[in-house]
Every structure is written in structure tokens, then in C-alpha cells.
Amino acid sequence: MLGHKTIPAMDSSRGGIEVVVEELAPRLVWMGFKVTCYNRKGCNNGGLSGYKGVRLKAVPTFKRRGLAAVTSSFFATIKATFGGYDVIHFHAEGPCFWMWIPGLLGRKCVCTVHGLDFAREKWKSGIGSYYIKTGERMAVKYASEIIVLSKGVQKYFRETYERTTVYIPNGICQPNVREAREITEKLGLKKDEYILFLGRIVPEKGLRYLIKAYNGLHTDKKLVIAGGSSDTNAFTAEIKKSAGKNVIFTGFVVGRLREELYSNAYVYVLPSDLEGMPISLLEAISYGNCCVVSDIEECAEVVEDKGVVFQKGNVMDLQEKLQMLCDDEELVQKYKNGAAEFAGMKYSWDDVAKNTAKLYENLFK
Questions:
Q1: Which of 6, 71, 130, 318 has CB 3.0 to 4.6 Å from 43, enough for a Cys bridge?
Q2: Is the pTM of this model over 0.70?
Q3: Which residues have C-beta within 8 Å of that of residue 228, sequence separation ≥ 6?
Q4: What is the C-alpha to C-alpha distance for residues 245 and 261, in angstroms, rounded to an integer?
Q5: Exposed e or buried b for every residue in 38-71, given b needs 16+ CB within 10 A?
Q6: What is the CA radius of gyration of the chain?
Q7: What does the pLDDT look like over 74-113, one tens digit per residue?
Q8: What pLDDT is attached to residue 322?
Q9: pLDDT average, residue stretch 127-146
Q10: Residue 226 CB-density burial (10 A; 0-12 exposed, 13-18 middle, 19+ buried)
């Protein structure tokens, strides 16, 4: 496997792709596969050479912005191509830029499309856009199978390339529900006193809408924005400047602090313009949260009727939905009841591993 930053990720390098690889790879090992993950050199994973039976190998990585993904994916592809593997599994579209190398040599390649990355703000133009779009086309041409996480992305590949894909959504883990302790000591927060956004601070997450909507609310509940930037320091500064005194920025969170934030939120909100299949939303539902999401297919199909949906980019609609929930605790509790059970029945990492293993095995039939 390649295309992720590192596993296990112990700092802000932990994104959705890293969560997927970290959950999937060990389960494949438990099922009898030999799995190697190529990590970026320099990313913090505690210096491990193995993780839950998965072999970890670090590849050279140029740390300059825009070059880390390109260089690490290139070196990982070269090593994987000549490493004697039965399957090379690329994660995300960009790394597939190099798939032509194993493809021309007849290696079996699989690509998981975690989202249409070319549409993200920082990759909409320039070399980054070319790299990702070319990677997408290389995947269409050379991948034996393409895995997608949402029906919307599946439709995109069908209509754009007439290419069939395999739908395997992400899973969730059994959450560690925590009482408020660290969030009280460090952030001054108590249960049900805050609205939570947890994710990367990037433009496509809809934080501009969220700040404007929150600023118009009549509530004493605080807004907590938990997450780090992703080469988006200027955007982070813009968001902080527009936020009022009741908006708390925690930075990147892990461990008990992260678990407490999920466990004690009044409402979780994800106002994204663009997603693949948001891990943070799955996590929020698994903790039994009342979730407010934009009406993009990748979010709406996750929550179904177990969450509140607003029109993407519509600040007034988001504000009205949040105000409705702030004014009606019984309605919030109604959404919370059964949310965790619903998520646990619908999304399972064990199922993800079984379906991925079946896909691998079908390549050789």
C-alpha cells in the first residue's frame, strides 16, 4: 500500500487516508495476507518498522510543499513494482500518477479514490491540478480495480470515463465514550455546551459558512473548531480573524481529548462543499451525535434520516438549522438516540477488509 503519509500517524499527518490504511492493513494481515505499507520518510510514526503485523518501510520524501506526495509516491511505486508483490494498492488519485510504471510491467494495481482531489481549493490550478488529474486518468487506464467510497464518485467515473468501479464505503470503530475531563481542564468545556466541527481547516470544509452562521445565532453555546491546517495557514488565519470570542480553536487533537470532544458535543456539524467519505462524520455518528451536514451526496448518504441536512453553501439555511437545534434539546436528543447503533450496523471496518480481500482474490481468478 502506498499514497498515505504514514501509519500509525501520531501527529497532524493523520488524515482520512491514514485512518483507512491504519484500519484496513492490519485486518488484511489477520486474514492471512502479507502487507507492506510505504510511509513517507520524516513523518512521525514513533520510528516503528512494523505495526500490528504490517511491515512498514520509509521512502525518500522531499519535504517542500507540493513535492512530498509526488516524491514519496514515486519512490514507493518503484520499490513496490520490483518488490515481488501480488497487488499494489494505491490510495488517492495523485499517487496514481506513477501507476503506469507497474501497469506497463503487468503488475496488478488497485486504486482507492478517497475523493475527487482535483476539486479541492489548493489543487484547482497549476502543477498540483495536473498531477492529480493525470493520476486519475492513469488509474482509469492501468488499475485492475478502482474502489470508491461514495455513490457520487462512482457515478462520476461511470459518466466521465465509462469506467466501472467497486463501492466499498469506509467503516467505524467502537468508540471510547468519555466523560468531560480534559476538555474542561484545558478548554473550559462541559457536556452539551458546544457545537463541534472536527476536521482539517481547509476551504472545502465550509468553515466560512459555519463561522458566518454561528455569528448569527442566538445561543450561549460555544463553537469548537478542532483540527490542524493542511498547507492552509493563510486560510486558517482568515477563519480565526472572522471568528468571535466564543469560537475555540483547539488545533490538531488526538487521544482522550479527541474522544471527549466527540463524546460531549451538543451538535456536530460538517458543512463541506467537497468530501470523499468523511471519517470524522462516521466517527461523530458512532459517538451518538446529532449531526448537521451539507446536502452533498457524500455526506447525506452517510447520515440518511439520522441527521439534519442543509443546502450546501447556504449560510441562512445552516443558521436556521443550527438555531432550531439550539432551541430544541428534545429534538437533538431524538437525533442522538439510535445514531451510534445505526452507524455500527451500516459501517464496519471488518466488512471493508472482507470486501477488499475478495476484490484482491478476484484479480487472480
A1: 6
A2: yes
A3: 12, 200, 201, 251, 252
A4: 19
A5: bbbbebebeeeeebeebebbbbebbeeeeebbbb
A6: 20
A7: 999 999 999 999 999 999 999 999 999 999 999 999 999 9
A8: 97
A9: 92
A10: buried
Cis peptide before 203 (omega within 30 of 0): no
**DSSP letter for each residue of 269-333:** EE--S--SS-HHHHHHHHTT--EEEES-HHHHHHHTTSSEEE-TT-HHHHHHHHHHHHT-HHHHH
Angle ∠(1,57,12) on CA atoms, nearest 5: 80
In sequence order, what are the residues at sequence separation of 6 or more whose Cβ sits closer than 8 angstroms to the Cβ of residue 344? 172, 174, 286
Residue 88 pairs in a beta bridge with: 109
Query: Which segment of 53-62, 222-231, 317-326 scores lowest on mean pLDDT?
Result: 222-231
- Report the C-alpha gap between 114 and 20 in whole angstroms: 9
Dump pLDDT digits (tens) for 242-284.
998 899 999 989 889 999 999 999 999 999 998 877 889 999 9
Among residues 81, 193, 152, 123, which one has the least CA distance to residue 294? 152
| Residue length of the chain | 365
What's the pLDDT score for residue 11? 64
End-to-end CA distance of the chain: 21
3-state helix, strand, coil in the chain (%, to 5): 45, 15, 35
- Under 8 Å between Cβ of 219 and 326: yes
> C-alpha cell of 314?
447556504
**pLDDT tens digits, residue range 170-208?**
998 888 899 999 999 999 999 999 999 999 898 889 999
Q: Which amino acid is at 226?
A: A
